[in-house]
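G., before I forget:
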Amino acid sequence: MSFEILTYAFMHRALIAGSAIAILCSVMGLFLVLRRYSLFGDALAHSSFGGIALGLFAGIYPLWTAYGVSIISALLITKIKEKYNISGDASIAVLLSSGIAVGLVIISFSGGFSLDIFSFLFGSILLVSVEDTVGIVALTGVILMIILLLYRQILYSTFNERQAKVSGVPVDKINYLIIILAGVTVVTAVQLVGVLLISALFVIPNVTAIMYGRGFKQTMFISMTIAVSSVIAGILISYVFDITPAGTIVLFAIGVLAVTMGIKSAGLLSKN
Amino acid sequence: MLNAVEISNLTVKYPDLTALDGVSFTIKQGDFLGIIGPNGAGKSTLFDSMLGLNTNYTGTIKFFDEDIKKSKTYRKEIGYVPQKPEFENNFPATVSEVVRMGLRKKSDDKKVDEILQQLWIHELRNRRIGELSGGQLQRVFIAKALVNDPKILILDEPSTGVDQQSIDLFFSILKELNSKQGITIIWSSHDLDAVNKLANHVACLNRTLFFHGKSETFFSDDKLVKQYSEASMQEHMHHH
């Protein structure tokens, strides 16, 4: 294998943007997984598909409509869940299918699938522009900063809502914040990994890291490391073998999970 | 002595039942109050109301003369130990991370260390919480409640399902917190003997308050004790 690929500018952009997305998705995903909201990322990604279709149809930059639709539907589904007492998994199913349905109807209005839609469905990490890369890195920085500032409150309300409330943590506000940040993260990541595989980046590195990590910070760090390595390895491997990057990234992460499970079954990891 | 807690005419009505009916009592600073009563007596409702989790009540609850519906600062005087420390069993957090969650001030490593030592869990500080025994876990949650130096410690039936050695250690810790550090303790329990041994005041609750006073008064009055035991016995039979 030649190292020539590392000299291409598009490859630099893909690796930088990809790593930023990997860090962001693994951090947000850890909170979602521990809140039993693992599929929430998937549902948001599907609703962003509706948003993207809407943008393409209306001639607005599709990412903006995707952000809007994702955040609004995330908040809406949370409200509906509270008000009508629908379970978490059912509300996620509702959100997921409505996003896809809206997208499909809009696409059929506009006369069928376009190439743009395909790149959002399956991701186009190698096509990421300089502006997008800067935007992704900046957004990652902002979201991580918010999480860092509210770290104790977010962690406490993830650990136990009731006790956090008693300690004066504004749990309801924190929950909405998490949902909004997850919505922003998903749409930002969609352009790279695609709608169909996004929840993999949210869930798989975290499921793996939880098996290794002792404490929360350690788990978060392990998860970030797995996610970034998967993205880098996935991009490079896919380029060399000329296969889809998004799929390769996810398969690499699944490989790490499989090895971890093997190690755990062999009794080489401590309990839990 | 200043009143730590003052509850007047607390009434909580649900659509199909009255959970608490005109409950009034005061807890003086430094008291060790045991709250007893059968299941469904309204203990949880009383605690939820005191902790600000249930605001749907009439009457008033005051902590240090401040109405909790109007005060935003009263929470910092309270440490709360839940009945069961509920969390996902595989939650990746160490003992010291859990204790730190309770910390209001930025980061006070010295305080965290001190509390961990006081509760005999310092050597467990880097262990994952899912690996601990029931008794160890209970002390972790007490540590979390104590880390802000609260004036009042509220414990919701905490000795359920923990081995005898841990229970003894737990009782001696409570006693020390109350007598040496002057922390007011409000403790709901099923265990009449333990309440008799530890608490200096007793409140006996069954939707209304049917006794509140010094524990020796309660426990020397056979009629009261019998009445209480019959109430819990009835409730017990009802459950089986």
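The helical segments of chain B are 43-50, 95-101, 109-118, 134-146, 164-179, 192-198, 215-220, 222-239. The longest helix of chain B spans residues 222-239.

More on Monday.
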